[in-house]
Amino acid sequence: MGKACCIGVDIGGTFIKMGLFDEKGVQYALERLPSNALRPPEMLLESLVQACRNLMDARQAHEGRVLAVGLGVAGKLDNQEGRVVFSPNLPNMAGFPLAPLLEKALGIPVFMENDANVFGLGELWAGHGRQVANWIGVTLGTGVGGCLVTNGSLWLGDRLGFVGEIGHVIVDPHGPSCACGQTGCLEAHASGSSLTRGITQAFHEGSPLPSWLCDAIASGSLTPEHVDKAARTGHPRALDLFRRMGWALGLALGNLFTFLGIQTAVIGGGVSQAWDLFFPHLMETLKTTPRMLDPSKIKIHRTSLGPLAPLYGAAHLAWQGLQERAGDST
Length: 330
Ligand SMILES: [Zn+2]
Hints:
The chain is α/β, with parallel strands linked by helices. The chain has two domains: about 5-120 and about 310-330, ATPase, nucleotide binding domain (Nucleotidyltransferase, domain 5); about 130-305, ATPase, nucleotide binding domain (Nucleotidyltransferase, domain 5), CATH 3.30.420. The protein has helices at about 40-60, 100-105, 115-125, 185-190, 190-205, 210-220, 225-230, 235-260, 275-290, 310-330; strands spanning about 5-10, 15-20, 25-35, 65-75, 75-80, 85, 110-115, 135-140, 145-150, 155, 265-270, 300. A five-stranded mixed β-sheet has the order 3-2-1-4-7. A five-stranded mixed β-sheet has the order 10-9-8-11-12, with helices on one face. Strands 5-6 form a two-stranded antiparallel sheet. A hairpin with a 5-residue loop joins strand 2 (about 15-20) and strand 3 (about 25-35). Helix 3 (about 115-125) crosses helix 10 (about 310-330). It starts with a strand and ends with a helix. Zinc ion binds near residues 168, 180, 182 and 185.
C-alpha cells in the first residue's frame, strides 16, 4: 500500500508549483506549470484541476491516495468562503471562489492560506521553525510578506483576511511611496519592486549605469536579479539599495522583536538570494537600534527550504486542515 499524500500548491505570478507530500513531510513529486496570470480565473482553475488530477492518478498508480489540497496564494483572502479578495499576482482572481470550486471539481478537501503564512507553515514543518517556539517569518519577493509564529503555531489574528503584514510597517514616513498607498513602508525599501524602482529612478536621474542595465530598463525587462548583478559588480547605487533594504529590515524586525519580546526571524522569498548584500546591514541596524534587545541572542535565519518553503507549507496546511476536520467530527 502506497503512502497517503496531500498536494501543496504555491500559486505565484509566473509559475504554479505543486508537490505531493506525506504526513511526515516527505516529498514524492514536484510539478511546475505556467500561471498565465492574466487569463480568466476559470481557465486557471481548469489547469489547476488537471494538474491535481495528474498527481492524484500518479499516486494511485503507486496504490496511494491523495487526501487533500493546500493552496498558498498571495494577497488578501476570505478564508471563510475560500475566496481570493485581491491578489497582486493574479489580478483577475479578485472575488473568485477558488478553494470551493477546486474542492468540488476534485472531490477532496481544499484549504487556502496567504502565501506568507504558508511560508511560515513550511518552516514550522520542515525548516528552522521546527526548533523555535516564537519567531517572525519574512518573505522577500516582488513585495514583502510576513507571518508570526507563537508557541509553535501560526498567529491568525482576528481572521481579517490579512495578518503579519510586516511589509506595510512604516520604517520612514518620508520614504518612497508603497503599492498600498502609504509612504515609507518596509516593502517600499526591501522588496524586488523597490530594487527595480530604485535603479530605474537612478537611470532617469542620469546616474552612470552599465549599458546592459540601461538596456534592461529601456526594454522594460529589468528584474531584481539585474540589480543584484549590478551590486556585485560594485555599482554604488545598487549597493546602496541593498544597504537600505538591510537597514529597513533591521528597523522593522527590531521594532517587532521589542514589542513582542522575541528574538528570532526566518527570511525567505526569491530576493533573499541576495542575502550577503543586505544581511550585514540588517544585523548592523539590529545591533544599534533597539536598546532592549541583547544583540548576541538575536537569530536571523535564511530559509533552509529555498523556494520550496511555501510548497511544504501548503501541504502542511492540507494535513492540518484534515486533522482539524477529523477533530471537529469526533
Ligand atoms: Zn505599504
